[in-house]
Specification:
Helices cover 48% and strands 13% of the residues. Strand 6 and strand 7 form a beta hairpin.
């Protein structure tokens, strides 16, 4: 389904996303609807584990479109994100041509810079794939130069390959950019996008997510772990646990055969939710038993 074929409005988008198991609030439903209708990228910012990346997967499922992911990192450049040439295969082709007695430079160049030797990276694949969802994950890890390059690409949804041609998307991809806010992304890129801040969910929504992802676990176990995670987030942790960690913690306890959790078992399994020694030490100093007693 293309954006133009999308029926209804934000409520229909919300219902379709929730059918995939991804729960959204009104603001995010509106942002997704406008992204579909206006072909604008949606910029998702917030702490890790709040569901930013999962949104792209859910949208791809709703649209029955391929999901193409570009994972950003420090030092990423256009050749890693857009395209590169398959130099080993080009070298073999050059040696074969030389062995066959081909010495015409133009023929050699034409043979070497052929489409079959082009390695399409995620951005080029997204331009060539027709309807798709392009996830640019953790854009805050890239540098300013890559941001500028990405802004230009998202403006035209086209790129020129000097040795070949200009590739222009027949149907622009639906673009989801995510940022964990390890640094501020430039305003120029944000202005090109629809913006949505991802907060940690409240107890009811988080419990609904856990139950949706792990329908076979005990209701009481899901409630107690969700309450513990909600309490942990109220404290000054290096890395507050996200919804993904809540799900991991419930899954771990369920694998241990637990249908409920006490303070001792919670402390013993903190590594499922907390990934820093300082956070685990702080959690051990909390009265987890009191938190659990409040759920009983």
């Amino acid at each position: 389904m293309t954006a133009e074929e999308w029926p209804g409005g934000p409520e229909q988008v919300r219902a379709a996303l929730e059918e995939t198991g991804y729960l959204v609030d009104e603001g995010l439903a509106i942002a997704c609807f406008l992204a579909l209708r206006l072909r604008r990228p949606v910029f998702c910012e917030g702490d890790a584990g709040t569901g930013k990346t999962a949104l792209a997967s859910a949208l791809a499922e709703v649209l029955d479109a391929p999901l193409i992911r570009l994972q950003c990192h420090e030092g990423i450049d256009a050749s890693q994100a857009l395209y590169d040439w398959d130099f080993p295969r080009q070298l073999l082709r050059l040696r074969a041509a030389e062995a066959a007695g081909v010495t015409d430079p133009e023929k050699l160049e034409g043979a070497l810079y052929d489409r079959r030797y082009l390695l399409a990276r995620p951005l080029l694949r997204a331009l060539e794939s027709g309807p798709c969802v392009l996830l640019v994950d953790e854009i805050d890890r890239a540098d300013d130069e890559f941001e500028a390059f990405l802004l230009e690409l998202l403006s035209d949804f086209a790129v020129t390959i000097p040795e070949l041609c200009t590739v222009r998307a027949e149907v622009p991809p639906l673009v989801v950019l995510t940022s964990n806010r390890t640094r501020e992304v430039h305003d120029a890129l944000k202005r090109r996008c629809l913006y949505h801040w991802f907060d940690h969910p409240d107890f009811g929504r988080e419990l609904a997510v856990v139950r949706g992802r792990l329908p076979g676990v005990a209701q009481r176990l899901a409630e107690e772990v969700t309450a513990l995670v909600q309490e942990l987030r109220r404290h000054d942790l290096v890395k507050p646990p996200g919804v993904a960690e809540t799900i991991d913690w419930v899954r771990a306890l369920d694998a241990l055969g637990a249908s409920e959790v006490d303070a001792g078992l919670a402390t013993a399994t903190l590594g499922s939710a907390l990934k820093y020694r300082e956070d685990a030490e702080r959690a051990r100093g909390l009265d987890l038993a009191a938190v659990l007693a409040g759920r009983r």
